[in-house]
DNA sequence: TTTTTGACTGAGTACTCATTCAGTTTTTAC
DNA sequence: GTAAAAACTGAATGAGTACTCAGTCAAAAA
């Protein structure tokens, strides 16, 4: 239990770093073993294949991300549902900023490729997105109760807003646009989406 | 000119199909040569390396995409700038639908990785995005002249709307959400963003 | 003390893949 | 028609790769 545990964790940690930074194909098993100061075989002792390790990294990220989110929302009080939406947006952006490399994982195309034939992988992705979108949806519903948000389709609007925020994170990590330069416009637009008179 | 031209084009065409469908790493040179009925060496005669071929595919896609867009916009008349924005959105979605596989190219992470050390690749991506965003921006400016759109920051709102639409395309290709199920909400939201009273 | 167990090792295996190049065929120029 | 140039070929190369496995070692169980 003492060292073995540590080594498996270390492998997972280094694999997360390397897969996040360089992707699946540009990270070899021996890259990971070197970074962890472990023999190649040890990796296969703990994880049966490279793909399994890759999935373990995703699973780990999923758990960290979801618990970080619920911790944040539980520890904050929001005046209105609209404020809660805003809080969720800015928390998502700050998380993406803080663990930028990890967020790369979400945008790594290879996961979606694996997901096509691996239901397990698909489920991880699905859980990540649905739990994130859920946060927005719940905030919208709360806002509709306290009248800070209009009677819109909460589920669809939540998806749209999440898409928007996630897309901005994506452009930011690809260095094609800076997220902070557009923060105010983003919040503004989300307010418009949720508060403007229904047509 | 006769056959040589054809073969180079055929290689580019098959490479586009295979890279779009399976990605860079899951497409080998011999996959491409088999699909084109050409010897491996021929590929290297026309393109110096696999990466160069990959970039040629991107360049080709860029040109096709941009010209398809301007052809569409020039052949249509729009009542207002707001209608033009709507037209651009629905055209983007229909293009993404029609050449779904090709659009994968835009979301293939590998390009962004190459872009990090290859200014040429970065430029292609930058041109694709900036010309697409430009279309939205111009439509917004026209709308501001004809009063169908409020006095918003055209450049930033154009980026936001593009991000939103592109993000939806992404979720659609990954089969995590169906774009057509959300079309009305999308248009609605864009109207809100561009027409709601400024705070 | 002896045995057993499970974590760990790293050289070896079997393979894939991009790239090369010496040579052949086809096209163009004269 | 002939020479030069260009297009094309595919077997060979060599650098990598994920994964295996026979064996080491330390600590727990007997």
Description:
The structure is a homodimer of 199-residue chains. Chain A has two domains: 1-47, Orthogonal Bundle (Arc Repressor Mutant, subunit A); 51-195, Tetracycline Repressor, domain 2 (Orthogonal Bundle), CATH 1.10.357. Chain A has helices spanning 2-22, 29-36, 40-46, 50-75, 81-98, 100-107, 109-117, 119-145, 154-173, 183-195. Chain A is built from ten helices and no strands. The termini of chain A are far apart. The first copy, chain A, is 79% helix and 0% strand. In chain A, α5 crosses α6 and α5 packs antiparallel against α8. Chain A has 199 residues and is mainly alpha-helical. Chain A binds chain B through residues 22-26, 107-110, 112-113, 115, 125-126, 129, 153, 156-157, 159-160, 163-164, 166-168, 170-171, 174, 176-177, 182, 185-186, 188-189, 191-193, 195-197, 199, and chain B through 23-26, 107-110, 112-113, 115, 125-126, 129, 153, 156-157, 159-160, 163-164, 166-168, 170-171, 174, 176-177, 182, 185-186, 188-189, 191-193, 195-197, 199. Chain B binds a DNA duplex (30 and 30 nucleotides) through residues 1-4, 7, 28-30, 33, 38-42, 44-46, 49-50.
- Give the overall silhouette of chain A: elongated
Alpha plus pi helix count of chain A: 10
- Beta content of chain A comes to under 5%
Largest interface here, residues on each chain? A-B, 42 and 41 residues
State the oligomer.
homodimer
The total strand number of chain A stands at: 0
- Can you tell me the CATH superfamily of the largest domain in chain A? Tetracycline Repressor, domain 2
Instruction: Quickly count the domains of chain A.
Output: 2
Task: Please identify the top-level CATH class of the largest domain in chain A.
Answer: Mainly Alpha
Distance between the termini of chain A: 62 Å
Low-confidence stretches of chain A: none
User: Mind telling me the C-alpha Rg of chain A?
Assistant: 19 Å
Structural class of chain A: mainly alpha
Q: SSE order of chain A, as H and E?
A: HHHHHHHHHH
CATH topology heading of the largest domain in chain A: Tetracycline Repressor, domain 2
């Amino acid at each position: 239990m003492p060292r073995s545990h540590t080594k498996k964790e270390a492998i997972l940690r280094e694999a997360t770093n390397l897969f996040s930074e360089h992707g699946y194909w540009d990270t070899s098993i021996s890259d990971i073993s070197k970074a962890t100061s472990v023999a190649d075989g040890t990796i296969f002792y703990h994880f049966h294949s490279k793909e399994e390790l890759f999935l373990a990294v995703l699973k780990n990220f999923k758990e960290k991300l979801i618990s970080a989110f619920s911790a944040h929302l539980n520890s904050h009080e929001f005046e209105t549902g609209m404020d809660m939406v805003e809080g969720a947006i800015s928390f998502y952006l700050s998380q993406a900023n803080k663990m930028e490399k990890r967020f790369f994982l979400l945008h790594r195309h290879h996961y979606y490729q694996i997901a096509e034939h691996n239901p397990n992988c698909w489920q991880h992705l699905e859980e990540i997105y649905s739990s994130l979108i859920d946060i927005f949806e719940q905030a919208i519903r709360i806002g509709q109760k306290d009248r800070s948000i209009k009677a819109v389709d909460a589920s669809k609007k939540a998806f749209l807003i999440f898409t928007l925020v996630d897309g901005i994170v994506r452009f930011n990590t690809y260095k094609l646009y800076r997220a902070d330069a557009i923060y105010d416009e983003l919040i503004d637009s989300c307010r418009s989406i949720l508060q403007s008179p229904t047509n």
